[in-house]
Target: Protein HGH1 homolog
Amino acid sequence: MSAEEIEKLNLPIDVVSNVLRGGDVGLKEMVLKYVLLMSGKDDCSQLTKDDVIINDLLEVAAKNNNSTGQLALDSIINITSSELGCNKVVESLNHLKKILKFSLERNSMLADRACKILSNVTRQENLAVKVGRMIISDHGLSVLIGAISDKSYNSSGQRLEFLAQAFGNLTQCVEFQNFLVDPVNGQLQRVLPVLHSGVTLVERSGIASALYNCLFDTKSHMTLLEAPFDILPVLLLPLAGPEEFDEEEYDKMPLELQYLPEDKRREADPHVRNLLLRSLLLLCSTKPCRIFVRDRNTYLILREYHKWEKDRVNLLAVENVIDILIRTEEEIGVNDLKSVEVPDDLKNKFEKWDRDFITGD
Model:
Protein backbone atom coordinates (compact mmCIF):
# COMPACT_ATOMS: atom_id res chain seq x y z
CA MET A 1 0.00 0.00 0.00
CA SER A 2 1.10 3.56 -0.71
CA ALA A 3 1.55 6.14 2.04
CA GLU A 4 -1.64 7.87 0.91
CA GLU A 5 -3.62 4.64 1.12
CA ILE A 6 -2.20 3.80 4.55
CA GLU A 7 -3.06 7.26 5.86
CA LYS A 8 -6.68 6.89 4.74
CA LEU A 9 -7.16 3.77 6.86
CA ASN A 10 -8.27 5.86 9.87
CA LEU A 11 -7.80 2.96 12.26
CA PRO A 12 -9.23 3.08 15.81
CA ILE A 13 -6.60 3.00 18.55
CA ASP A 14 -7.78 -0.35 19.90
CA VAL A 15 -7.36 -1.91 16.45
CA VAL A 16 -3.85 -0.46 16.16
CA SER A 17 -3.00 -1.84 19.59
CA ASN A 18 -4.34 -5.31 18.81
CA VAL A 19 -2.33 -5.54 15.59
CA LEU A 20 0.88 -4.38 17.28
CA ARG A 21 0.41 -7.08 19.90
CA GLY A 22 -0.43 -9.74 17.33
CA GLY A 23 1.75 -12.09 15.32
CA ASP A 24 0.93 -11.12 11.72
CA VAL A 25 4.23 -9.59 10.57
CA GLY A 26 2.89 -8.09 7.33
CA LEU A 27 -0.10 -6.51 9.04
CA LYS A 28 2.11 -5.23 11.86
CA GLU A 29 4.46 -3.53 9.37
CA MET A 30 1.53 -1.79 7.71
CA VAL A 31 0.13 -0.56 11.03
CA LEU A 32 3.58 0.63 12.13
CA LYS A 33 3.74 2.74 8.97
CA TYR A 34 0.26 4.06 9.75
CA VAL A 35 1.30 5.01 13.29
CA LEU A 36 4.43 6.68 11.91
CA LEU A 37 2.32 8.82 9.59
CA MET A 38 -0.02 9.75 12.44
CA SER A 39 2.87 10.55 14.78
CA GLY A 40 4.33 12.95 12.24
CA LYS A 41 1.27 15.17 12.27
CA ASP A 42 1.04 18.32 14.38
CA ASP A 43 -1.74 16.84 16.46
CA CYS A 44 -0.98 13.25 17.41
CA SER A 45 -2.87 13.48 20.69
CA GLN A 46 -4.75 10.24 20.03
CA LEU A 47 -1.42 8.43 20.28
CA THR A 48 -0.53 10.08 23.59
CA LYS A 49 -3.85 10.38 25.40
CA ASP A 50 -2.96 7.24 27.32
CA ASP A 51 0.00 4.89 27.65
CA VAL A 52 -1.22 2.12 25.38
CA ILE A 53 0.34 2.90 21.99
CA ILE A 54 3.68 4.05 23.41
CA ASN A 55 3.87 0.85 25.45
CA ASP A 56 2.94 -1.27 22.41
CA LEU A 57 5.58 0.43 20.25
CA LEU A 58 8.25 -0.19 22.87
CA GLU A 59 7.20 -3.83 23.15
CA VAL A 60 7.52 -4.22 19.37
CA ALA A 61 11.01 -2.71 19.58
CA ALA A 62 11.96 -4.99 22.47
CA LYS A 63 11.05 -8.07 20.42
CA ASN A 64 12.55 -6.91 17.12
CA ASN A 65 16.19 -5.82 17.03
CA ASN A 66 15.84 -5.04 13.33
CA SER A 67 14.08 -2.72 10.87
CA THR A 68 10.70 -3.50 12.47
CA GLY A 69 11.93 -2.29 15.84
CA GLN A 70 13.48 0.75 14.18
CA LEU A 71 10.13 1.60 12.59
CA ALA A 72 8.43 1.38 15.98
CA LEU A 73 10.97 3.76 17.53
CA ASP A 74 10.64 6.21 14.62
CA SER A 75 7.10 6.90 15.81
CA ILE A 76 8.29 7.53 19.37
CA ILE A 77 10.90 9.97 18.03
CA ASN A 78 8.03 11.91 16.44
CA ILE A 79 5.87 11.64 19.56
CA THR A 80 8.68 13.01 21.76
CA SER A 81 9.16 16.04 19.52
CA SER A 82 6.34 17.60 21.57
CA GLU A 83 6.31 18.44 25.27
CA LEU A 84 3.16 16.37 25.75
CA GLY A 85 4.78 13.33 24.17
CA CYS A 86 7.93 13.69 26.27
CA ASN A 87 5.91 13.88 29.46
CA LYS A 88 3.92 10.81 28.50
CA VAL A 89 7.05 8.74 27.82
CA VAL A 90 8.84 9.85 31.00
CA GLU A 91 5.79 9.11 33.17
CA SER A 92 6.81 5.46 33.17
CA LEU A 93 10.17 4.30 34.52
CA ASN A 94 9.69 1.10 32.54
CA HIS A 95 9.56 3.15 29.33
CA LEU A 96 12.79 4.91 30.26
CA LYS A 97 14.55 1.67 31.17
CA LYS A 98 13.64 0.14 27.81
CA ILE A 99 14.86 3.20 25.92
CA LEU A 100 18.15 3.13 27.86
CA LYS A 101 18.50 -0.58 27.18
CA PHE A 102 18.00 -0.04 23.45
CA SER A 103 20.60 2.76 23.60
CA LEU A 104 23.27 0.88 25.52
CA GLU A 105 23.08 -2.77 24.46
CA ARG A 106 26.23 -3.35 22.44
CA ASN A 107 24.50 -5.27 19.62
CA SER A 108 21.45 -3.01 19.45
CA MET A 109 20.34 -1.98 15.96
CA LEU A 110 17.89 0.38 17.66
CA ALA A 111 20.54 2.41 19.49
CA ASP A 112 20.65 5.53 17.31
CA ARG A 113 16.89 5.91 17.38
CA ALA A 114 16.73 5.25 21.12
CA CYS A 115 19.43 7.88 21.68
CA LYS A 116 17.34 10.42 19.75
CA ILE A 117 14.38 9.63 21.99
CA LEU A 118 16.57 10.00 25.07
CA SER A 119 17.79 13.35 23.76
CA ASN A 120 14.22 14.51 23.15
CA VAL A 121 12.87 13.55 26.56
CA THR A 122 15.75 15.21 28.45
CA ARG A 123 15.44 18.66 26.85
CA GLN A 124 13.17 19.95 29.62
CA GLU A 125 14.95 20.40 32.94
CA ASN A 126 12.28 18.67 35.05
CA LEU A 127 12.37 15.59 32.82
CA ALA A 128 16.18 15.61 32.65
CA VAL A 129 16.21 15.55 36.46
CA LYS A 130 13.93 12.49 36.54
CA VAL A 131 15.95 10.61 33.93
CA GLY A 132 19.26 11.60 35.54
CA ARG A 133 18.17 10.37 38.95
CA MET A 134 17.02 7.07 37.46
CA ILE A 135 20.38 6.51 35.76
CA ILE A 136 22.21 7.24 39.02
CA SER A 137 19.97 4.95 41.08
CA ASP A 138 20.44 2.11 38.57
CA HIS A 139 24.25 2.60 38.58
CA GLY A 140 24.14 3.17 34.83
CA LEU A 141 26.35 6.25 34.61
CA SER A 142 29.60 4.40 33.90
CA VAL A 143 28.03 2.42 31.05
CA LEU A 144 26.52 5.60 29.59
CA ILE A 145 29.89 7.35 29.65
CA GLY A 146 31.59 4.32 28.14
CA ALA A 147 29.15 4.31 25.23
CA ILE A 148 29.86 7.99 24.54
CA SER A 149 33.64 7.79 24.81
CA ASP A 150 34.18 4.51 22.93
CA LYS A 151 33.37 4.87 19.23
CA SER A 152 33.52 1.08 18.77
CA TYR A 153 31.04 0.50 21.61
CA ASN A 154 28.13 -0.57 19.39
CA SER A 155 28.81 -3.66 17.29
CA SER A 156 25.91 -3.04 14.88
CA GLY A 157 27.30 0.11 13.30
CA GLN A 158 25.22 2.57 15.34
CA ARG A 159 27.02 5.89 15.96
CA LEU A 160 25.28 6.88 19.22
CA GLU A 161 25.98 10.57 18.49
CA PHE A 162 22.70 11.69 20.08
CA LEU A 163 23.75 10.01 23.32
CA ALA A 164 26.23 12.87 23.78
CA GLN A 165 23.41 15.35 23.29
CA ALA A 166 21.29 13.52 25.87
CA PHE A 167 24.31 13.56 28.19
CA GLY A 168 24.50 17.34 27.86
CA ASN A 169 20.81 17.61 28.67
CA LEU A 170 21.17 15.34 31.70
CA THR A 171 23.68 17.72 33.29
CA GLN A 172 20.71 19.97 34.04
CA CYS A 173 20.24 17.53 36.94
CA VAL A 174 22.41 18.66 39.87
CA GLU A 175 22.76 15.13 41.26
CA PHE A 176 23.97 13.97 37.84
CA GLN A 177 26.51 16.81 37.79
CA ASN A 178 27.74 15.93 41.27
CA PHE A 179 28.44 12.34 40.27
CA LEU A 180 30.38 13.51 37.22
CA VAL A 181 32.65 15.96 39.06
CA ASP A 182 33.20 14.01 42.28
CA PRO A 183 36.94 14.42 43.03
CA VAL A 184 37.35 10.73 43.86
CA ASN A 185 34.94 8.84 41.61
CA GLY A 186 33.94 11.46 39.02
CA GLN A 187 34.08 10.34 35.40
CA LEU A 188 33.54 13.54 33.43
CA GLN A 189 37.10 13.37 32.06
CA ARG A 190 36.25 10.21 30.10
CA VAL A 191 33.99 12.09 27.70
CA LEU A 192 35.99 15.33 27.41
CA PRO A 193 38.14 14.18 24.43
CA VAL A 194 34.95 14.20 22.34
CA LEU A 195 35.15 18.02 22.42
CA HIS A 196 38.05 17.98 19.96
CA SER A 197 37.80 14.48 18.48
CA GLY A 198 34.04 14.19 17.96
CA VAL A 199 33.28 13.76 14.26
CA THR A 200 29.81 15.27 14.39
CA LEU A 201 28.53 18.60 15.66
CA VAL A 202 25.88 16.80 17.73
CA GLU A 203 28.59 15.03 19.74
CA ARG A 204 30.76 18.09 20.30
CA SER A 205 27.81 20.30 21.17
CA GLY A 206 26.51 17.76 23.68
CA ILE A 207 29.79 17.51 25.57
CA ALA A 208 30.34 21.29 25.45
CA SER A 209 26.87 21.76 26.96
CA ALA A 210 27.64 19.22 29.68
CA LEU A 211 30.86 20.96 30.66
CA TYR A 212 29.19 24.37 30.66
CA ASN A 213 26.37 23.15 32.91
CA CYS A 214 28.86 21.57 35.33
CA LEU A 215 30.60 24.94 35.79
CA PHE A 216 27.65 26.82 37.26
CA ASP A 217 28.69 25.70 40.74
CA THR A 218 31.89 27.58 41.57
CA LYS A 219 32.71 25.09 44.35
CA SER A 220 33.71 22.52 41.73
CA HIS A 221 35.90 24.84 39.63
CA MET A 222 39.28 24.14 41.22
CA THR A 223 38.52 20.42 41.29
CA LEU A 224 37.84 20.53 37.55
CA LEU A 225 40.97 22.54 36.81
CA GLU A 226 43.17 19.93 38.48
CA ALA A 227 43.82 16.25 37.74
CA PRO A 228 42.15 14.03 36.72
CA PHE A 229 39.81 16.47 34.95
CA ASP A 230 42.27 19.14 33.70
CA ILE A 231 39.56 21.03 31.87
CA LEU A 232 41.55 24.15 30.93
CA PRO A 233 43.36 22.59 27.94
CA VAL A 234 40.13 20.78 27.06
CA LEU A 235 38.36 24.13 26.73
CA LEU A 236 41.23 25.89 24.98
CA LEU A 237 42.33 23.26 22.45
CA PRO A 238 39.27 23.68 20.18
CA LEU A 239 39.86 27.46 20.25
CA ALA A 240 43.59 27.20 19.51
CA GLY A 241 45.09 27.51 16.05
CA PRO A 242 48.51 26.77 14.54
CA GLU A 243 50.13 29.98 15.79
CA GLU A 244 53.63 29.75 17.24
CA PHE A 245 54.81 31.29 20.50
CA ASP A 246 58.15 31.97 22.18
CA GLU A 247 59.79 29.26 24.26
CA GLU A 248 59.10 31.17 27.46
CA GLU A 249 55.43 31.52 26.52
CA TYR A 250 55.13 27.80 25.75
CA ASP A 251 56.67 26.88 29.10
CA LYS A 252 53.65 28.19 31.02
CA MET A 253 51.04 26.63 28.73
CA PRO A 254 49.52 23.19 29.34
CA LEU A 255 51.38 20.54 27.34
CA GLU A 256 48.32 19.89 25.17
CA LEU A 257 48.57 23.44 23.79
CA GLN A 258 52.29 23.49 23.05
CA TYR A 259 53.73 23.20 19.52
CA LEU A 260 50.46 22.54 17.75
CA PRO A 261 50.80 21.40 14.11
CA GLU A 262 50.59 23.78 11.17
CA ASP A 263 47.30 22.25 10.07
CA LYS A 264 45.61 22.71 13.48
CA ARG A 265 42.08 23.98 12.93
CA ARG A 266 39.75 25.66 15.35
CA GLU A 267 36.25 24.43 16.20
CA ALA A 268 34.11 25.12 13.12
CA ASP A 269 30.76 25.63 14.84
CA PRO A 270 30.10 29.07 16.39
CA HIS A 271 27.66 27.69 18.98
CA VAL A 272 30.21 25.21 20.33
CA ARG A 273 32.85 27.95 20.43
CA ASN A 274 30.41 30.13 22.35
CA LEU A 275 29.80 27.40 24.94
CA LEU A 276 33.56 27.04 25.42
CA LEU A 277 34.05 30.79 25.85
CA ARG A 278 31.17 31.05 28.30
CA SER A 279 32.66 28.12 30.22
CA LEU A 280 35.97 29.98 30.45
CA LEU A 281 34.14 33.04 31.73
CA LEU A 282 32.49 30.96 34.45
CA LEU A 283 35.91 29.58 35.41
CA CYS A 284 37.10 33.14 35.98
CA SER A 285 34.46 33.76 38.67
CA THR A 286 36.73 33.27 41.70
CA LYS A 287 40.20 34.58 42.46
CA PRO A 288 42.06 31.23 42.84
CA CYS A 289 40.70 30.00 39.50
CA ARG A 290 41.42 33.31 37.75
CA ILE A 291 45.03 33.08 38.91
CA PHE A 292 45.22 29.45 37.74
CA VAL A 293 43.82 30.31 34.30
CA ARG A 294 45.90 33.48 33.94
CA ASP A 295 49.18 31.80 34.96
CA ARG A 296 48.89 29.25 32.15
CA ASN A 297 49.02 31.87 29.40
CA THR A 298 45.38 31.46 28.48
CA TYR A 299 45.44 35.07 27.33
CA LEU A 300 47.85 34.24 24.48
CA ILE A 301 45.59 31.53 23.09
CA LEU A 302 42.57 33.83 23.30
CA ARG A 303 44.48 36.76 21.79
CA GLU A 304 45.18 34.75 18.65
CA TYR A 305 41.67 33.36 18.65
CA HIS A 306 40.29 36.93 18.79
CA LYS A 307 42.21 37.79 15.61
CA TRP A 308 40.63 34.81 13.85
CA GLU A 309 37.01 35.02 15.07
CA LYS A 310 34.43 36.72 12.80
CA ASP A 311 31.23 35.99 14.73
CA ARG A 312 30.40 39.11 16.74
CA VAL A 313 28.62 37.16 19.50
CA ASN A 314 31.80 35.19 20.05
CA LEU A 315 34.00 38.26 19.75
CA LEU A 316 32.06 39.77 22.63
CA ALA A 317 32.33 36.50 24.59
CA VAL A 318 36.11 36.24 24.20
CA GLU A 319 36.58 39.93 25.03
CA ASN A 320 34.69 39.37 28.28
CA VAL A 321 37.20 36.67 29.25
CA ILE A 322 40.23 38.64 28.09
CA ASP A 323 39.07 41.69 30.03
CA ILE A 324 39.30 39.66 33.25
CA LEU A 325 42.62 38.00 32.42
CA ILE A 326 44.49 41.21 31.60
CA ARG A 327 43.45 42.87 34.85
CA THR A 328 45.33 42.32 38.10
CA GLU A 329 43.57 40.94 41.14
CA GLU A 330 44.11 44.30 42.82
CA GLU A 331 42.19 45.95 39.99
CA ILE A 332 39.40 43.38 40.19
CA GLY A 333 39.18 43.80 43.95
CA VAL A 334 36.79 40.92 44.79
CA ASN A 335 37.16 37.18 45.26
CA ASP A 336 33.92 36.07 43.60
CA LEU A 337 32.68 38.09 40.63
CA LYS A 338 29.30 36.38 40.91
CA SER A 339 28.80 38.06 44.27
CA VAL A 340 29.01 41.56 42.77
CA GLU A 341 25.58 43.17 42.57
CA VAL A 342 25.13 45.41 39.54
CA PRO A 343 22.42 48.10 39.80
CA ASP A 344 19.57 47.65 37.33
CA ASP A 345 20.33 50.90 35.49
CA LEU A 346 23.93 49.85 34.88
CA LYS A 347 22.87 46.32 33.99
CA ASN A 348 20.50 47.70 31.34
CA LYS A 349 23.24 49.98 30.02
CA PHE A 350 25.75 47.11 29.76
CA GLU A 351 23.19 44.90 28.02
CA LYS A 352 22.53 47.67 25.49
CA TRP A 353 26.25 48.03 24.85
CA ASP A 354 26.46 44.28 24.24
CA ARG A 355 23.53 44.35 21.82
CA ASP A 356 25.01 47.32 19.97
CA PHE A 357 28.37 45.55 19.71
CA ILE A 358 26.78 42.38 18.33
CA THR A 359 24.70 44.28 15.75
CA GLY A 360 27.59 46.58 14.86
CA ASP A 361 25.67 49.76 15.76
Remarks:
- The longest helix spans residues 344-359.
- The mean pLDDT is 93.
- The chain is about 65% helix and 0% strand.
- Residues 99 and 114 are 6 Å apart (CA to CA).
